[in-house]
């Protein structure tokens, strides 16, 4: 399956973009109320937890930290939470956030790759990343999240 790759230019510092991607306050704004939970040590768990099918502590996405370099790289394995896969472990893929300062802005590259053939979450991920990345850009630049209504 083809990798999903997106490049966004954001009017904000790498520190501000990084904070939006990795802090509970930032992720809550851009991931529909979910917070990121991790020590960010390579090999340790990473989870996006928030309101959902299993209540306020629904695990939407989880995986293992593969690389962590503050304000530059966050890479982790990606599994969809068990409430979305009938309680079974889904297929593994990989997510990479790459930040690069470009003058007064930050280039954010997201790569979602290493998809397993037949992963039922591939198509939906391709659509969802546009909303998430647009939301990250808006939060960093304005301090306000986008309202997607029933789409989000």
TrEMBL record:
A Pfam family matched in the record: AHSA1
Annotated source species: Rossellomorea pakistanensis
The protein's name: Uncharacterized protein YndB with AHSA1/START domain
Similarity comment: family membership: Belongs to the AHA1 family.
Annotated TM spans: none
Residues covered by the Activator of Hsp90 ATPase homologue 1/2-like C-terminal domain: 13-141
